[in-house]
Design a protein that fits this description.
heterodimer, A: about 300 residues, alpha+beta, Multidrug efflux transporter AcrB transmembrane fold, Alpha-Beta Plaits, two-stranded antiparallel sheet, 6 strands, B: alpha+beta, 4 domains, nine-stranded mixed β-sheet, 20 helices
Chain lengths: ~300, ~625
């Protein structure tokens, strides 16, 4: 069976359109981030408390929101109606996210989940241990540390990859590869910002996997280019790259499809906890395939013509 | 191919046998019923099996993950022999600066000390004379403190009987505690948190206490600002007999409450204007109580500068009990006990040598009752003898982390340090106090800075959905590869299944923990591993199209694909190593699986498939290849 017959598509001839598309996608994301005051960060980075609970039947979020407008803890009144309240998986599960407080009452998460239980006392599971799905509490200091760690992780991954590709190929290829990676990460962050998804530690892991995956794709094409440069001397770089992309096209499509299937299944059936992780991966697989052809390769040509 | 294939088969056979052998305990363990596990645990064999199986992360089986940090600034304040504002300001400044993750607390402290010109030797003369010397020994003290916390936590967690706890140091001043499958997260949290500074305070006597309450009432009377502290929505129920009780009646004879002549209709705010402090309090038999609905107002009042000054001038402070017990007669309200104690402790933790809960021995006054016996070191015994001798009849509060656990009366002078505490409701109450007394060797308080709890039901969902997703993803990829590459696809599928099995075997032998992101990593490995075969097969197809024989097509296909695969995989390996380096908990799990998955895929997707192809083409002279 063969999906892709021998092709001869002028991929690089379409660079003008794709450059516009990339610029459009990146600026849409940046505009969204500027409007929202930066990417939406999870409590991993901002600090705060996330409490997820499980009622036995679907519940109304607005009812919970109005109940949370005045919560009495140790005699102190809190207004949590501005907290982020959303469904977690299905409509009987609720997750509430509360920002870090200057002076948090003791055993706050416990007292807060008690409050959530008291809103719908009849919908609390018989075994009370099953009411709390998860609690995450991150102090502001830890949040700041995780942020700087995550930034360090992405930057050092990019640097190490730049070095490796420069050694194995040439510097111009490394620049092309890094350009594609920055492009991918920017667009993925932008998509997250536009859709209002938050960036958690798991999403950072997904970003780094996207970096690895997109690079994988780029290198397979560059490898072909390197080989074709040796065999066909004197041909213009543009033609060689076009030929290489065409030759590796069937592999690109098959691999992208299988990986896409796999992350799609993860997204659909993997459960709530890795939902955003697998979503980042879906975006990354699509953008990663696109960028190897339409970002990495044109950049190499630009660098070559200098 | 003329090359001898035997060594290749030997390598493959060895590795596959090892993988099966390593996974066997996990497989057996999965099949076991709870009863069988219980039998094995009884005979002590279960632990040995458990060290050989793949561990599940907290996100899969439910549990708690807690990061504790030793409060070094407080430790330093406690260690100082001289207690003054100048040092406190400098320590606070250094603490503030070290909130930036790139700034080390001790570096910030050193800079602040230098810029202020303060002489540390005035405060820490026991720790050396020069600044460097003192800082070095203080650092040692901090390291030592966290190591003791670690040791004590290990003891305590063991005593409370949590299965397979993990307690380890992270960085210099942090401890990570992982408690798997824990059902009662409140108990676990209070168990960890109560690892803090143990102190013994003298409780001021009744008349001094009442005098102070009256003084504070006078001080705050008519303070207009106080109305701001009112609850936004006043409690509807007003059963405020005791709130109107006069100060002198408040403490001591609880009977007077019922005969109180207070005007029940008196307005709440009017009352809190006349007696803003005592109106928050409740009389208990022999103690003062504070209802938890008044806790916030109470703390606000205490934090007012004029109140703080008054208390400071009187060398006193208010402390609350650890538990808010429910009243026995009307069990609606939860009430803390309130103690007015000296502002300086008589003794601090570290002096307790041993503390044991027992039943009182026959013949003594406490026969058959739960008691705690404790012994002290020589330093402690000396002070203890003086304190008890001078305060017979007074109460001494046992305070852990500024919370009063118990305030027994001193009956006689205790010269030897051998002390017996009585008055427990049952033996387990006595046991809890004994644990707290033993843990008292902590000079620094411990704060929870990160906490993650996964309930058992979410964990069960995750593992179900995770397994489903992996199985489904795998089946889909296998079907696709079989249809697309036919016989060669079968070889690739075989390699892929072994890839997964070997990764699991490596995880089991590394004692690594499988987390939900780890399962995601496994799925990603499936995708990446199949990519290696796709690259090879597409190359072979190309070579075949150029008219090469199957044998030469396979040879050149593999040799050309291999550089691509290595380059592509090495970059992913770099990404996974960086992830491992910077990631925490679950992310590390993802990185571990991805790293081994990619590494092993080079063995299965390249080495194993190549060997099978070679066998296939060397057997007979074939003219076509099913690919």
């Amino acid at each position: 069976m063969r999906i892709i017959k021998k092709t001869n598509i002028d991929f690089l001839g379409k660079t003008n359109i794709t450059t516009l598309l990339s610029i459009f996608l990146i600026s849409a994301g940046i505009i969204s981030m500027v409007l929202n005051g930066g990417p939406k960060l999870s409590i991993d980075f901002k600090g705060g408390t996330l409490v997820a609970v499980n009622y036995t039947e679907p519940v109304n979020i607005e009812k919970i929101r109005s109940e949370l407008s005045s919560v009495l803890i140790d005699g102190q009144s809190f207004n949590f109606s501005n907290a982020e309240i959303k469904y977690f998986g299905d409509e009987s599960n609720i997750a509430v996210r509360i920002a870090s407080m200057e002076e948090e009452p003791e055993q706050f998460s416990k007292k807060f989940s008690d409050k959530l239980a008291s809103i719908f006392p009849n919908l609390v599971p018989v075994d009370k241990n099953n009411f709390i799905l998860s609690v995450e509490k991150v102090g502001p200091k830890v949040g700041a540390e995780l942020s700087s760690d995550a930034l360090m992780a992405i930057l050092s991954a990019l640097l190490l990859i730049l070095i490796y590709v420069s050694v194995r190929f040439e510097f111009k290829y490394a620049v092309g590869a890094i350009a594609a990676l920055v492009h991918d990460v920017l667009i993925t962050i932008g998509v997250f910002s536009i859709l209002g998804y938050e960036i958690s530690l798991a999403v950072i892991a997904a970003f780094l996997t996207i970096v690895g995956y997109s690079l994988n794709d780029t290198i397979v094409i560059f490898d072909r280019v390197r080989e074709n440069v040796k065999t066909t001397k004197n041909a213009p770089m543009k033609n060689i790259i076009n030929q290489s992309i065409n030759e590796s096209l069937s592999r690109t499509i098959i691999t992208s499809l299988t990986t896409f299937f796999v992350v799609l299944i993860l997204f659909l059936f993997g459960g709530e906890v890795i939902h955003t992780f697998s979503f980042a991966m879906i975006v990354g697989v699509l953008i990663g395939t696109y960028s190897s052809i339409f970002v990495a390769s044109p950049v190499v040509i630009k660098m070559d013509s200098k | 191919m003329e090359k001898n294939l035997t060594p290749r088969y030997l390598v493959i056979g060895l590795i596959l046998t090892w993988a099966v052998y390593t996974l066997l305990p996990t497989w057996q363990y999965q099949k076991m019923t709870e009863n069988q596990k219980e039998d094995l645990r009884a005979s002590g064999k279960l632990e040995r099996i458990e060290t050989k199986i793949i561990k599940q992360g907290l996100d899969l089986k439910g549990g708690m993950y807690i990061v504790l940090e030793a409060d070094i600034p407080t430790l330093l304040t406690n260690l100082a022999t001289l207690d003054d504002e100048r040092l406190k300001v400098i320590i606070n400044k250094a603490e503030e600066e070290s909130k930036n993750p790139d700034v080390d607390f001790f570096v910030a402290l050193e800079n602040n000390v230098k810029s202020d010109g303060i002489k540390l030797s005035r405060y820490y003369h026991e720790y050396g004379s020069s600044l460097d010397e003192i800082l070095l020994s203080l650092k040692d003290e901090a390291d030592d403190a966290i190591n003791r916390v670690l040791e004590i936590l290990q003891n305590r967690v063991d005593q409370f009987g949590v299965s397979e706890p993990t307690i380890q140091k992270q960085g210099k001043h942090r401890i990570v505690v992982e408690l798997a499958g824990i059902q009662d997260s409140d108990r676990a949290r209070s168990l960890l948190q109560s690892t803090a500074l143990l102190e013994f305070y003298l409780v001021k006597n009744i008349s001094v206490t009442n005098e102070m309450i009256a003084q504070l009432d006078n001080l705050l009377k008519g303070d207009k600002d106080l109305t701001k502290l009112e609850l936004p929505n006043k409690p509807e129920e007003k059963k405020s007999d005791d709130e109107a009780t006069s100060v002198s009646e408040l403490f001591g004879e609880s009977e007077t409450i019922n005969t109180s002549t207070a005007d029940n209709n008196e307005d709440d705010s009017q009352l809190s204007l006349n007696a803003p402090f005592s109106s928050l309090l409740t009389a208990l038999p022999g103690d003062i109580g504070l209802e938890d609905k008044n806790l916030y107002r109470f703390k606000k009042l205490l934090s007012l500068p004029e109140v703080a000054t008054r208390l400071k001038n009187s060398n006193g402070q208010f402390l609350l009990s650890q538990n808010n017990q429910e009243m026995t007669d009307n069990s609606i309200e939860k009430i803390y006990k309130l103690y007015y104690v000296e502002d300086k402790p008589e003794l601090t933790g570290g002096i307790v040598d041993e503390a044991r809960a027992d039943l009182g021995s026959l013949g003594s006054g406490s026969a058959g009752q739960a008691v705690v016996s404790l012994s002290m070191n020589s330093d402690g015994s000396r002070t203890w003898s003086r304190v008890t001798g001078a305060n017979i009849g007074e109460r001494i509060a046992i305070v852990l982390d500024k919370k009063v656990h118990m305030a027994p009366s001193i009956r006689e002078k205790i010269p030897s340090g051998r002390t017996q505490i009585e008055g427990f409701a049952n033996i387990s109450e006595a046991k809890d106090l004994a644990i707290i007394l033993r843990a008292g060797a902590l000079p620094a308080p411990v704060n929870i800075i990160e906490e993650r709890i996964v309930g058992p039901s979410l964990g069960a969902d995750s593992i179900k959905q995770g397994t489903q997703a992996v199985t489904l993803g795998l089946i889909l990829v296998l079907i696709f590869i079989l249809i697309y590459y036919k016989f060669s696809g079968l070889i690739a599928s075989f390699a892929l299944i072994w890839n997964i099995l070997i990764v699991l075997a490596v995880l089991a032998s590394l004692q690594a923990t499988l987390t939900l992101p780890g399962i995601a990593g496994l799925i990603l490995t499936v995708g990446m591993s199949i990519d290696a075969n796709v690259i090879i097969f597409e190359r072979i197809r190309e070579e075949l199209r150029r008219g090469k024989t199957p044998k030469t097509a396979i040879d050149s296909g593999y040799s050309r694909a291999i550089t691509t695969i290595v380059d592509a995989n090495v970059t992913t390996l770099i990404a996974s190593l960086v992830l491992y380096q910077f990631g925490t908990g679950p992310i590390k799990g993802f990185a571990t699986v991805l790293f081994w998955g990619i590494l092993i895929s080079m063995f299965t997707a390249v080495f194993i498939t190549r060997t099978i192809f070679n066998t296939y083409v060397s057997r007979k002279s074939i003219t076509s290849l099913s690919i």
